[in-house]
Amino acid sequence: MRMAFGTGALATGVAAVVVSGLLVWVAGLLLGWSDPWPAGIWVVGLAGIGAAVAAYVAEWIAYRRTLTRMRSIGEPWAYREGGRDRS
Description:
mainly alpha, 2 helices, rod-shaped
């Protein structure tokens, strides 16, 4: 599951980089900045990293809640990975 969460987080981070880069570029055009990228590169990088970390944490929380809910409906061993809890 960690690999699935990681690839989802990577895709989210890349999408955030693209969108924030586009926003920095458009803001630079609208505000007449001659060179927005010295400061914009920090915005783009932090947006990508922040979105990737947030996506990974959100997926992990959703996964843990799903396992908890599945275990609480009466089949505790049916949904465990390898027959034991790997918290």
